[in-house]
Write a structure and sequence with these properties.
Layout lengths: L3 H26 L5 H12 L2 H11 L3 H26 L3 H19 L9 H18 L7 H37 L61 E6 L5 E4 H6 L3 E8 L10 E10 H8 L7 E6 L4 E5 H5 L5 E6 L2 E2 L9 E3 L13 E7 L22 E6 L4 E2 L2 E10 L5 E8 L5 E2 L1 E2 L9 E9 L2 E11 L21 E7 L1
Parallel strand pairs: 1-10, 12-19
Antiparallel strand pairs: 1-2, 3-4, 4-7, 5-6, 5-10, 7-8, 7-9, 11-13, 13-17, 14-15, 14-18, 16-17, 18-19
Helix pairs in contact: 1-4, 1-6, 1-7, 2-5, 4-5, 5-6
The chain binds the ligand Nc1nc2c(c(=O)[nH]1)N[C@H]1C(S)=C(S)[C@@H](COP(=O)(O)O)O[C@H]1N2 and molybdenum atom.
Length: 505
């Protein structure tokens, strides 16, 4: 009989090859999401809010890597179980493989880009795995010495086969991992020919960026822009076939192609985007120069019917956001964006088209890979995160953050304290800092570029030796003073003053 180690190894190799086979089939026939992707994304959709918060808290924008590692560990464990179960009772391990396959099949069926036709690679992989496992681990049937010799030879041949299988399997697994991490993503995002904006922003005033080391730059480069979404694999959208469908409570449905959009009068706008999961002092916030078509133009063409109060934007991967109609129809720069900092949207930031709305958290507004705008009512529809315990409305809360000094000791004497503050669509009027719970002291502000962007600030601090705490708070142009009350991110964003401890020596 095969040893436990051998059985576990066979389990891992067979399961690995079965998964890789299904991945490769899905990839090269373009049938839909691969099983790993489907399971990961179904898992993300089923994750309760508190667990998602914990994940973002622990792993930040590495949450996908963490999930990938988690899935790999669980699959490895189940593969070992399959091998051992097959060794114990014939067909039992095959049963484990079939169970795994069923989970993957159900996940694939329920994905927006999946469905019945997308399931066949999983079926093939499962059948191959479920037959290979008992085939490779069949116990010697008899105590007859001659039969035993023959069995030995069979086992030897199996070992050889396994070796070859392992090599091939590793190659397949490598290829599918490459697929999952998106190494092969590049060719599916052909560069768009972005037109010049019909309405441009004025050049940045010299005083907009204080250029202090360690301070977040006024403009966040695309590569450094935080990424938060439910997509385990970045959706691949073909710009040639992309359309935006505007429907629901409208006079007439409108369908736009990318050419339609690019031929329109596009506007440029500086907008700071922020995630509702951003903790006090966190970095899930960034500022970019966006290029796009005002959403109100498109809504105008469709003709919004009376009674509507919300637009549910939907992405190709099924994510939805509920945005109040009024912020999409007032004069703010709510955009169907095609450009980010002078280039196309990077795939992970919504290529080819996403929504950007100044003043709202991303989860209720900033739909990436957008494909639909449904004009409706808050009473009739709910969005992705609303169904998971988050508020239906998500206006950004006034915030401020200390970027320097942070996490290191500084020499006594004059220390520059600096950071950013934001109150999108309201604007920042003042920022104050206090040392060791003392008096609030006014800071200097960088030039305001737009009420929709963050604003840098700094403070010259005559720092005495010892350990000190620094705290910051902002005041909006509407007079609102940032509250010191500590509230967590659920259900509609964190509040509280950012505090850092500094060692001065
Ligand atoms: N399709 C899609 N769009 C999405 C999301 C998503 O999960 N799927 N997440 C939203 C959230 S919660 C935020 S904070 C912003 C983040 O945009 P970014 O990744 O470009 O920074 O995208 C929004 N748009
Ligand atoms: Mo978010």
């Amino acid at each position: 009989m095969a040893s436990r180690w051998f059985a576990a190894l066979v389990g891992v190799i067979v399961t690995g090859c079965a998964i890789a086979l299904a991945e490769i089939l899905a990839r090269f026939t373009g049938s839909g999401p691969g099983p790993v992707e489907a399971v990961a994304e179904a898992f993300i959709d089923l994750t309760p809010g508190w667990l998602k918060d914990l994940a973002i808290d622990w792993f930040g924008t590495n949450d996908k890597v963490a999930l990938g590692v988690g899935i790999a560990v669980v699959m490895l464990a189940l593969a070992v179980v399959a091998g051992l179960a097959e060794r114990a009772v014939r067909w039992r391990g095959a049963g484990v493989v079939i169970l795994l396959g069923l989970v993957a099949a159900v996940a694939t069926l329920t994905r927006p880009d999946g469905g019945v036709v997308a399931v066949w690679p999983v079926v093939v992989g499962t059948v191959v795995g479920a037959l290979a496992l008992p085939g490779l681990l069949a116990p010697p049937g008899t105590a007859d010495p001659e039969r035993a010799m023959a069995d030995r030879r069979v086992l030897d041949r199996r070992a050889l086969l396994l070796g070859a299988g392992a090599v091939g399997g590793l190659a397949l697994v490598g290829a599918s991992v490459a697929r999952v991490v998106g190494v092969r993503r590049a060719p599916v995002a052909p560069a768009l020919e972005l037109p010049d904006a019909a309405s441009t922003v004025p050049p940045l005033p010299a005083g907009a960026d204080l250029d202090i080391e360690g301070l977040a730059p006024f403009r966040t480069p695309n590569e450094e822009f935080y990424r938060i979404d439910t997509a385990f694999v970045v959706p691949r959208v073909d710009p040639a076939t992309w359309t935006l469908r505007v429907h629901g409570m409208v006079e007439q449905e409108v369908t736009m192609t990318l050419d339609d959009l690019l031929a329109d009068d596009l506007v440029e706008a500086w907008v700071t985007l922020c995630c509702v999961s951003n903790q006090v002092g966190g970095d899930l916030v960034g500022n970019a120069l966006w290029l796009g078509l005002p959403v109100r133009e498109v809504l105008d063409r469709a003709g919004v019917r009376p009674g509507a109060d919300m637009v549910l934007s939907r992405s190709v991967d099924g994510f939805t956001a509920s945005t109040p109609l009024e912020v999409l129809t007032d004069d703010r720069n709510a955009l169907l964006a095609v450009g980010m900092n002078g280039t196309d949207l990077p795939p992970e930031h919504g290529y080819p088209v996403r929504v950007v709305v100044p003043g709202l958290y991303g989860y209720v507004s900033a739909t990436k890979w957008v494909s639909e705008l449904q004009v409706t009512r808050f009473a009739d529809e709910t969005a992705y995160w609303t169904d998971r315990g988050w508020s239906a409305h998500g206006p950004v809360k006034i915030s401020s953050r200390i970027d320097v000094p942070r996490g290191r000791s500084v020499a006594a004497g004059e220390v520059v304290v600096a950071g950013v503050a934001w109150a999108q669509h309201t604007g920042i009027a003042a920022v104050e800092v206090r040392v060791d719970d003392g008096e609030w002291q006014p800071c200097e502000l960088a030039e305001q570029v737009h009420v929709d962007t963050w604003r840098q600030w700094f403070f010259r601090w005559d720092a005495p030796a010892g350990t000190h705490s620094l705290e910051v708070r902002a005041t909006g142009q509407d007079g609102e003073i940032q509250t010191g009350e500590r509230v967590g991110v659920v259900p509609d964003g964190a509040t509280g003053w950012h505090r850092v401890d500094v060692q001065v020596g």
